[in-house]
Task: structure prediction
Amino acid sequence: MKLTRKQFLKSGALITGGLILPGFKFYNPFQEQTYQFTTIRNNIGIFTERGGTIGWYATNDALVVIDSQYPETAKNLVVGLKQKTSRKIDLLFNTHHHGDHTAGNLYLKDFANKIVAHENCKVFQEKAYGGNPEKPQAYPTATFSNSWSEDIGKDKVTARYFGAAHTGGDSVIHFENANIAHVGDLVFNQTYPFIDPNGGGAVKLWPEVLEKIAAHFDNDTTFIFGHSISNDLLIGKRQDLLAMKNYLNILVEFVEKEIKAGKTKEEIGAAAEIPGYADLKERWQGARKMNLDRTYDELIKK
Ligand SMILES: [Zn+2]
Result:
C-alpha cells in the first residue's frame, strides 16, 4: 500500500506530535487511527479513541463494557478485549443516550448478552435517533428506574440514577469492590460541558446531582469521565466532581445576574469569560457561548 503525501505527513505528525500515548498498541497508520487501553486496577480500565470514554472490566469470568462510542471504534475495542478474555460481553451499559456513547451498540450487540441503561436513556435514544435510516440504532434490552445491580466475576456492578443533569437519563455505573465509578458525561473534566435541553438535560439541576454523587461515593473512589480537556484527565477523584459542580453553579449565577441587569441573550452569549473561568478551554469552538446561550434559555423559560 502506498501512502499519499497527505497521509504520510499526517502519520508523521501523529508520530512526532506526541499524540501516541504510553500503552498505545494497535496504531494503523493507513487508517490514521489511535486507540488506547489504560488499566486502572482490578482488571478495570478505560478505552479511548473517538467519542465518550469507554469503561471495561475484563477477566475470564466477567466482561462488562460501559458505553460504546461508534461502530468503527467499537470494533477496535472488541479486538483489544479479545486479547484479555474469550468471553462474550456479559453486560453492556449506556451511561446516557448521546450518539458518541451509544452508536457503537449496533456493532457490540452481536457480542453482548445484555444492553442495560436507565429507562429515560432508551426513551431519549429513540426520540433523538429513531426512524432515521442513516443512524441505525441498537437499544437497551433491559432498563431500570432507580438502580440496577449484578454480581459479576469478583465484583458487583451497580448502575444508579441521580436525576436529570447532562440529559434526562444519566446513570453512574459503579464497580463496588474496585470502587471505580463511570459517571458518563456528568463530568466534562476541566472543560465546557455539552448542554442538552432537548435530551432532558437541566443546567440548574445538574449541580445538585453532582452533589448527591459526591456524597454517595468517597475519597477513595476513582471516577471515569465521559470527556475531559486531555486524555490524562479522563480519570479523577471526588474533587473533580465538585469542581464541575462549582463551574455549573457559577455559570447559572452569572447568567442570572446578567439577565437581571437587563442584558440580551446576544450580549450575554458574547461574554469573553465566565467569572473565574477565563482559562477554561473549549473542546470545540463555541462551547462557552453554547453554555451561556442554553443556560439563558433554561432560566428564561420558567
Ligand atoms: Zn453526552
